Amino acid sequence: MTRNSRLLLSALAPAILYLTTQAATPPKLGSRKAPLLTKDGLQFRDLNKNGTLEPYEDWRLPIEKRVADLVARMTPEEKAGLMIHSSLSGFTGPNGEVLGVPSTPGRGGPPRGTASNANRAFLGRANQNNVEPMGSANPNQLVVERNVRYILVRPNAGEPPEITAKFHNGLQELAEAGRLGIPIVFSTDPRHGTARPGAGKPVLSQWPDQLGLAAARDLELTRQFGQIAARELRAIGIQCLLGPMADTTTEPRWNRISGTFGEDANLNATLIKAIIEGFQGKQLGPESVMTVTKHFPGDGPVKDGYDGHNNYGKWTIYPGNQFDLHLIPFSAALEAGTGGMMGGYFIPVGKDTVAINFSKLMINGLLREKMGYQGLVVTDWLRNMPWGVEKLSEKDRQKMMVLAGVDQIGGDNDPSVILASVKDGGIPMTVLDTAARRILRPIFQLGLFENPYVDPDQAKTSVASEAYLAKGYEAQIRSTVLLKNAADILPAVSGKRIYVEGIAPEVAARYGTVVDDPKSADLAILRVATPATNYPYGGAFAMGFARGNSAPTPPPPVATYGITLAYGNAANWTVLEGIRKVAASGTPTVVIVNMDKPAILTEFIDSVAGALAAFGASDAAALDIVFGKAKPTGKLPFDMPSDMPSVMSQAADVPFDMDDPLFKFGFGLTYNR
User: Fold this and answer.
1) Separation CA 402–CA 392 (nearest Å)
2) Catalytic entry in 58, 299, 380, 414
3) Which PANTHER family match (predicted)?
4) Which CATH architecture has domain 479-649?
């Protein structure tokens, strides 16, 4: 080959690479602050505004080459900014503009881990965990001054999709105007649940809880949920889901069971793969929503059912030596190509003495080396949950996490802490570079370097469309489980007199005449929460009330057990009194339980004619089953206990080990007519 031939081949290499490795159609570019470049008859975004096509701007090149080029151009400050996964809410203007000060208050309240006078005797001093207060930050500070590029966003309640889309576009403009034009990844917690009646048109399609998808037992339905949710989130400018939860719920008292796929690790694994494939596709791309699977290596066996947001709930325990069982769904998530992984809050007793995100044994040792995961690792929002490292400074805590293999600190907003450790040599530059590569790779895969913007008009018409709402409604129905149907009282006859509690009267009126006295009704339908516990020492995630229920009534004087799954000594013990009173009226009574966790129904099950478990179904979906517009097909995703002694004696990490459950995993009736 002559020298001229080699030069020609070298010049044509990018175009040849594009034709052989990329789609035949160039990507659609979106630029508002960066000019476009033309080379070889193709267009590119000049993100660093220097008039030259750099490798990281060249969409024809392999992603790894683009990532390496960009990391080499970044300052330590810019790399540290990537390692913060911040939160932002309240800065949306009435027309979607980005405000400098919040128009509405964000999620606030006293810092977690503080103690009131009432519980100080139990918790100790107000700042016993040595938590340094974190200041607030506005959009300009986050994006421009601190180089943050992953942001958890919380739109205002009822905010129209087109307003949310405009706001995200405005933030992307701030990022595009930066030195290197690195776009933002916007993340969200799961937000496709059902709303109460009268809330207006839903902002997104409405689906059952993740636990409800497990009750529906349909891989394709679960995959379709991920696909539809991804389309809606991408339409409003969100590209990352902080989910799904892959925790296997072997401790029935835990208060986050509704966000999981239930008690069976293998069913959990199968559904985890399906939901990730729904959100991401076979691999991350411009239409994907990246999943961050949580809470590695499994928060299901939490001690005594308490919650890891609190220092009294910071341990997972393994009395049955079933630690590896809880890894099964996380292995499935890795097989499905999950874009990210989130470590849990908890200390795994017998495995390490510090919480997961501080543990080199758990992150670098187990997740990265043993399980082979080399992708993005994000901490949970844990600044106020430094379990096992309470005596360390914030600087030493963050350094410990980064050296353990963590790439991003969740819930923080200031990279200066990490940067200080880089500057004094505590965090080597090679570690910073490795984290930067892992963080940047998904941004390229998601297509954001080509076009980070969305069309507000398309968001307005495509999000919560009739087709998407219908599919979510179908899933709500299919997730509902019929537990009891004495004398085939169900399906009920429409058009009769009905008495309802816990159900919107305007919804119930579609099925019959609503009356005020159960004695004058032909059928009574009660919708209730599961038993709730008032923690005597307070804390986050403590109440456990199902959606739409009122605040708790003071409990009986003595609570025999800690967290209870029985109504008799629960904070909302009056639920049981109400059921018994209506059932005693002589009117056939049907109880719909909002089943966010296993509940003990033996206190009333014999006195009612029918019982159903709802896993995030709307009133209308539940009543469609009661009145026979649809048949119940759901199956329980966990065992339902008969009494508290059987709950107390089961091993926290072992599935299906309760004595004589009232209803077993997989139970579910249907109609004979």
Assistant:
1) 15
2) 380
3) LYSOSOMAL BETA GLUCOSIDASE, PERIPLASMIC BETA-GLUCOSIDASE-RELATED
4) 3-Layer(aba) Sandwich (3.40)
